[in-house]
Inverse folding.
């Protein structure tokens, strides 16, 4: 028996034994040590257990990111996986409860309403004063979530993890498992048959899109013009889209809860930027127009702001670079992202922002950052730049700077499951979003993806021929050389 088969056998034995223990005493709260002890007695090694716990953390981080940006379906899928092997972790239980609550609120999914209630109750049993769980439970009950309790046992919710390869397999539950007919195979949602248009490349005008997940909706309106020169996508819910045409006019569609896709009167526009739920446009006369969510003042463009040459939109803040190299920021300052340093040298470039911090390139070719440092955003690798020139910067959960010598610098602790080295060579281009990064290697223009994507990886090879790539919450967008007339 090879190692993979042995691990799979031992993993199934572990889950069956854990379920048996749980069913013997349904009131018992299995701890991490309980599960580890059962795992080791079932044949798993210490290394196997460590790998499993690493996978739990990966599913948790992915699920939390999906939840933050309103993708409740994928959040549920990832967080349910984390709960399977860590039912004692309050942080996972709470986030999974929030994901199910969102699913119930948006789709009326009764099973998710019930599941959210159970998860919040479990949180409160483990941590009686958990404010978030108490609030969530209260909201569910006030809004009439399903009250009928299902024995939705965490150890048979989903398929187990294959330790060696990190993939998934379907496991048959033990005979007599509640809520699941004996002999039924519980399938991981990635293994279910694809919807007819799941992997369909969509085209309109000179835009092209590939679905990232299980979305089968249209990425953009039909009959778009063929002269779009820039496209920006907001990074919440399904994302709102701003498209700048060659003639300086702007098109907008997609998520519009905060009217972020309702275009105000605009002059000739030279650049657009999409934030979390707000939009920016830089006009030819050097002025900035902002619209959409203004809860934190991110649309309150400072009076007298003129001569702007570049704009960028963060989660809840906005940034502008003026012709004389000064940076102006407004909106949320909860993490100090709008506190431009007094000693900041003249700036020549703003980063594309998808975070609560701000990154710029100064006149001397160095990187400067301020705002949140929760993920080591301030650890900029200026020593690695040397004599090279920064040609592109991305500021997000992970931060990137592409240099003109084809090196890619990477810093900040990853919010997503993938980890990349701090310096990569032979990179022709990079396009980042939340939560994924696309790199195009210089040699043969090989496309590599790091992060969340659930379609055919071979399809990504199409990206190598796109003029630009924008990583949105639901789609990879690009500008094509072969427009659809």
């Amino acid at each position: 028996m090879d190692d993979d088969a042995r691990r799979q056998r031992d993993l199934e034995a572990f889950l069956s034994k854990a379920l048996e223990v749980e069913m013997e005493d349904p009131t018992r709260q299995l701890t991490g040590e309980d599960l580890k002890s059962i795992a080791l007695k079932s044949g798993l090694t210490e290394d196997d257990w460590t790998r499993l716990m690493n996978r739990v953390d990966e599913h948790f981080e992915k699920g939390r990111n999906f939840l933050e940006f309103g993708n409740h379906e994928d959040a549920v899928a990832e967080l349910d996986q984390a709960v399977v092997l860590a039912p004692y972790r309050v942080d996972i239980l709470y986030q999974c409860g929030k994901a199910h609550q969102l699913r119930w609120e948006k789709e009326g999914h009764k099973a998710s309403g019930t599941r959210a209630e159970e998860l919040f109750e479990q949180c409160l049993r483990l941590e009686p004063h958990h404010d978030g769980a108490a609030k969530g439970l209260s909201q569910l009950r006030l809004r009439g979530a399903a009250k009928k309790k299902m024995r939705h046992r965490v150890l048979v919710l989903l398929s187990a993890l294959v330790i060696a390869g990190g993939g998934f397999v379907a496991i048959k539950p033990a005979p007599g498992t509640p809520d699941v007919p004996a002999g039924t195979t519980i399938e991981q949602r990635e293994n279910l048959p694809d919807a007819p248009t799941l992997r369909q490349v969509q085209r309109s005008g000179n835009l092209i899109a590939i679905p990232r997940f299980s979305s089968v909706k249209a990425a953009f309106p039909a009959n778009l013009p063929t002269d779009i020169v820039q496209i920006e996508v907001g990074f919440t819910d399904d994302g709102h889209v701003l498209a700048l045409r060659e003639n300086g006019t702007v098109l907008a569609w997609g998520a519009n809860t905060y009217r972020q896709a309702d275009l105000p009167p605009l002059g000739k526009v030279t650049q657009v930027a999409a934030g979390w739920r707000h939009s920016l446009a830089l006009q030819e006369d050097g002025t900035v127009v902002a619209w959409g969510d203004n809860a934190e003042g991110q649309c309150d463009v400072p009076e007298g702001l003129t001569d702007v040459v570049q704009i960028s939109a963060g989660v809840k803040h906005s940034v502008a670079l003026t012709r004389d190299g000064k940076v102006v920021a407004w909106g949320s300052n909860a993490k100090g992202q709008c506190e431009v340093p007094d000693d900041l040298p003249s700036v020549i470039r703003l980063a594309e922002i998808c975070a609560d911090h701000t990154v710029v390139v100064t006149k001397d070719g160095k990187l400067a950052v301020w705002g949140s440092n929760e993920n080591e955003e301030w650890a900029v690798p200026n020593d690695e730049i040397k004599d090279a020139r920064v040609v592109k910067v991305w500021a997000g959960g992970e931060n990137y700077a592409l240099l003109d010598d084809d090196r890619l610098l990477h810093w900040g602790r990853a919010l997503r499951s993938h980890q990349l080295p701090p310096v990569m060579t032979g990179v022709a281009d990079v396009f980042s979003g939340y939560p994924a990064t696309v790199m195009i290697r210089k040699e043969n223009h090989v496309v590599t993806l790091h992060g969340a994507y659930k379609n055919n990886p071979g399809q990504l090879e199409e990206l190598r021929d796109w003029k630009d790539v924008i990583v949105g919450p639901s789609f990879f967008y690009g500008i094509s050389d072969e427009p659809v007339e």
Notes: The chain is about 25% helix and 25% strand. The CA atoms of residues 51 and 212 lie 26 Å apart. Residues 3-191 form a domain with the Serine Threonine Protein Phosphatase 5, Tetratricopeptide repeat fold (CATH 1.25.40.10).
